[in-house]
Amino acid sequence: MNLLGIDYGKKRIGLAWVQVGLDVVLPYGIVNNIDELVTLINKEGIDKLVLGMPLGLDSKENDNTRRVNEFAEELKKRTNLPLEFVDERFSSRQADSMGGDVSRDEKSAMVIMQTYLDKQ
C-alpha cells in the first residue's frame, strides 16, 4: 500500500511517500496546486492520503484548519481515496531541525507521515 503524506500550504504542497511494510518515509517533492497533486496521485498509484491538520496551540480550529478541511473535501471528491488527518502542530519546527537539502515543505510532510505511522 502506497501512502502519501501531505503538508498543505497556501503557496506550496509538500509531499512525502511511504510504502507500508518498508516504513521508510521519503520526501516526494512539491506541487503547486490540487490539479498537480491529483495528477501525481493517479500516476503513482497512491492508496491512502495522510494530511496534516493545523490546529491551534489550544487544540481548537482556526482559519488554517478550515482552509485545510476545504482542501481535503475537494481532494476526496477528486481522488475517491481514503484520507486521514494528523495533528501537524510543531511539524514545521521539527522539519527545521532536520538536515539535508530537502525543502521545508517536504520535511513537514515527512514529519506528518512519520507521526501517522507511529500511531498505527
Automatic annotation (TrEMBL):
<keyword id="KW-0540">Nuclease</keyword>
<keyword id="KW-0690">Ribosome biogenesis</keyword>
<comment type="function">
    <text>Could be a nuclease involved in processing of the 5'-end of pre-16S rRNA.</text>
</comment>
<protein>
    <recommendedName>
        <fullName>Putative pre-16S rRNA nuclease</fullName>
        <ecNumber>3.1.-.-</ecNumber>
    </recommendedName>
</protein>
<dbReference type="InterPro" id="IPR006641">
    <property type="entry name" value="YqgF/RNaseH-like_dom"/>
</dbReference>
<dbReference type="GO" id="GO:0016788">
    <property type="term" value="F:hydrolase activity, acting on ester bonds"/>
</dbReference>
<comment type="similarity">
    <text>Belongs to the YqgF HJR family.</text>
</comment>
<dbReference type="GO" id="GO:0000967">
    <property type="term" value="P:rRNA 5'-end processing"/>
</dbReference>
<dbReference type="InterPro" id="IPR005227">
    <property type="entry name" value="YqgF"/>
</dbReference>
<dbReference type="GO" id="GO:0004518">
    <property type="term" value="F:nuclease activity"/>
</dbReference>
<dbReference type="Pfam" id="PF03652">
    <property type="entry name" value="RuvX"/>
</dbReference>
<dbReference type="InterPro" id="IPR012337">
    <property type="entry name" value="RNaseH-like_sf"/>
</dbReference>
<dbReference type="GO" id="GO:0005829">
    <property type="term" value="C:cytosol"/>
</dbReference>
<keyword id="KW-0963">Cytoplasm</keyword>
<feature type="domain" description="YqgF/RNase H-like">
    <location>
        <begin position="1"/>
        <end position="95"/>
    </location>
</feature>
<dbReference type="InterPro" id="IPR037027">
    <property type="entry name" value="YqgF/RNaseH-like_dom_sf"/>
</dbReference>
<keyword id="KW-0378">Hydrolase</keyword>
